[in-house]
Task: inverse folding
């Protein structure tokens, strides 16, 4: 178990903490999604978990051992695949892997077998002699992941691993991450793409402004306690209708062309649709009693993840 307790971190030049009392428990072998908009604190939390930064308050314990002691005892147990490309662009793919395998302190035979396994896992066979700096965005991400796997870590920290990749590479990376989780690795996956987190992760924390807004299984986060209606409109809701709905419904949020209203039932839906029609609006999309992570985020923050 990874136990994160009341973690606080403030960058020297910042006027507010990047993390402000974050507590989380991450079960071994889970595919844990850390979802939040830009600046929420995801990279800071990942950096603290990898030991790159040290908390100002609070603690991280892994298997009931303080993080610093855990890392000293098992130096290769945690690997970070950072958001930035962490390789030498002027070296080939094979040279990068050989170099990073070399700095793990492994014997030569293990270095060679780990490099070969990482190449095979990330499907880099066809580009081993290519300069890393000349790879496409998707292949660079795959090389980043391959380097992270060289130490055969138990815990893999993936910081926005699909940013800037084509859909095919994204698909490949998501499948590869699922495979790693099936093999028992604990994966902490940060993203601001709620579709990815929803498709991949079985345990999710939503963070914003350095705080955990909610944490639970995907099913728990998506369960609607009160039946709500989600509308996607061709244009923002007129102010008069927004006022009517805000007054009449216990919960009303609007963000751009998306509107969430609760409670709404099959019995009260026709009235709402009639009011929209009177305002000259026909919804482009509508769902009743079902929500996604974006809507959950909107409900918690009154903002869109994409803002
Ligand atoms: N080196 C730094 N110095 C000062 N402030 C920083 C530094 N790095 C990050 N911050 C600030 O800390 C907060 C959290 O940043 P962090 O990078 O952890 O967020 P994030 O959720 O990973 O965002 P993104 O998705 O954009 O990477 C932000 O307000 C950011 O501006």
Result:
């Amino acid at each position: 178990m990874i136990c994160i307790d009341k973690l606080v971190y403030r960058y020297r030049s910042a006027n507010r903490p990047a993390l402000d009392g974050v507590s989380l428990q991450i079960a071994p072998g889970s595919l844990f999604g850390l979802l939040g908009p830009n600046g929420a604190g995801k990279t800071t939390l990942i950096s603290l978990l990898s030991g790159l930064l040290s908390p100002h308050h609070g603690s991280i314990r892994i298997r009931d051992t303080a993080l610093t002691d855990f890392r000293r005892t098992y130096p290769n147990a945690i690997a970070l695949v950072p958001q930035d490309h962490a390789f030498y662009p002027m070296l080939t793919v094979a040279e990068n892997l050989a170099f990073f395998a070399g700095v793990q302190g492994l014997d030569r035979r293990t270095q060679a077998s780990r490099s070969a396994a990482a190449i095979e896992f990330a499907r880099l066979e066809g580009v081993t002699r290519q300069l890393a700096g000349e790879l496409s965005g998707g292949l660079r991400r795959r090389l980043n992941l391959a380097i992270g796997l060289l130490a055969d870590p138990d815990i893999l920290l993936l910081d926005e691993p699909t940013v800037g990749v084509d859909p095919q590479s994204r698909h490949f990376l998501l499948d590869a991450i699922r495979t790693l989780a099936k093999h028992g690795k604990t994966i902490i996956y940060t993203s601001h793409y709620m579709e990815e987190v929803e498709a991949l992760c079985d345990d999710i924390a939503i963070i914003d402004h350095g705080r955990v807004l909610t944490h639970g299984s995907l099913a728990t986060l998506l369960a609607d306690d009160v039946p709500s209606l989600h509308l996607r409109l061709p244009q923002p809701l007129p102010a008069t209708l927004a006022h009517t709905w805000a007054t009449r419904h216990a919960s009303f949020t609007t963000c751009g062309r998306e509107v969430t209203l609760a409670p709404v039932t099959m019995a009260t839906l026709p009235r709402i649709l009639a009011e929209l029609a009177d305002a000259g609006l026909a919804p482009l999309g509508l769902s009743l009693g079902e929500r996604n992570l974006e809507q959950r985020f909107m409900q918690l923050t009154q903002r869109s993840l994409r803002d």
